[in-house]
């Protein structure tokens, strides 16, 4: 559980650095993302509907790659 949490924090830090370089406030960007994805009970199913194909593509890629090793 520590490794995935560390990877998530590292990815958020790198994205925050890129936001800072672009001239945006990283905390403001993260707040906007949270509000757009989970700001209302209406937005949560919409977020899941849009995320499901991405997760399925990742799963369809990860299973053959895992079995190839």
Description:
The chain contains 3 helices and no strands. With 69 residues, it is mainly alpha-helical. It starts with a helix and ends with a helix. The chain has 2 domains: 1-38, no CATH class; 40-69.
User: What integer value in Å does the Rg equal?
Assistant: 16 Å
Main β sheet profile: none
Helix content, binned percent: over 70%
Using DSSP, what is the number of strands?
0
Please write the string of helix (H) and strand (E) elements. HHH
Strand residue content: under 5%
Write the layout of secondary structure elements.
Blueprint: H1 2-22, H2 26-38, H3 43-68
Outline of this structure?
The protein is an all-alpha fold and 69 residues long. The chain is 87% helix and 0% strand. The chain folds into two domains: 1-38, no CATH class; 40-69.
Summary tags:
0% strand; 69 residues; 87% helix; extended; mainly alpha
């Amino acid at each position: 559980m520590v490794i995935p949490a560390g990877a998530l924090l590292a990815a958020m830090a790198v994205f925050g650095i890129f936001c800072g370089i672009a001239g945006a406030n990283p905390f403001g960007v993260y707040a906007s993302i949270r509000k757009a994805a989970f700001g209302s009970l209406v937005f949560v199913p919409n977020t899941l509907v849009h995320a499901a194909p991405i997760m399925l593509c990742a799963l369809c890629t990860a299973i053959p790659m895992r079995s190839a090793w």
